[in-house]
Amino acid sequence: MPVKKTPLGVILIAVLMIIGGLLDIVSGASLLTGAAFMPGWAFAELTVAGAVSLIWGIVILLAALSLMKLKYWAWLLVIVVNIINIVITILFGGLISLVISIIIVVYLFYQRDLFK
Fold first, then answer.
1. b/e code 56-88 from CB counts within 10 Å (16+ = b)
2. How far apart are CA 104 and CA 59, in angstroms?
3. CA torsion angle for 43, 46, 52, 55 (degrees, to 10)?
4. Does residue 40 lie in a domain region?
5. How many Å is the Cα radius of gyration of the chain?
6. Are 107 and 82 a contacting pair, CB within 8 Å?
7. Whole-structure pTM value
8. What is the DSSP letter of 55?
9. Distance of alpha carbon 12 from alpha carbon 41, whole angstroms
10. Residue 110 covered by a domain
11. What residues make up the domain containing 48?
């Protein structure tokens, strides 16, 4: 069976996701560190936000690395995340984010045969 070559567009999407995932991990760690110095509800809120950001960053990082290996579950996760982002962006604004998410979804649907 021939080895499938990862298209440049998929690599670009994965690299951007890796950067985003690393930023989420850093922001989650920062929130958790800052939570240690906050009293009461602020501690709880920062702890939850930091943990969610940290876990989300790890998931995005793993999905990006698997997307470059053309894993189907990574393709599906990236599609779902970008559809959620499209809905959130439509509700709360952000034209650039909306356009990027639409481009990613359309591109990955055209490349879906690679992710089997």
1. bbeebbbbbebbbebbeebbebbbebbeebbee
2. 18
3. -80
4. yes
5. 17
6. no
7. 0.80
8. H
9. 40
10. yes
11. 8-114
Residue type, 27: S
Residue with tokens 């929130």: 31
pLDDT tens for the 116 residues of the chain, in order: 566 788 999 999 999 989 988 998 999 999 989 888 888 778 888 899 899 989 988 988 998 999 999 999 999 999 998 898 889 889 888 888 889 889 999 999 999 998 87
Using the structure block, give the residue that is written with the tokens 């998931």. 59
Q: Please state the domain count of the chain.
A: 1
**Residue 116 to residue 71: CA distance in whole angstroms:** 7
3-state helix, strand, coil in the chain (%, to 5): 85, 0, 15
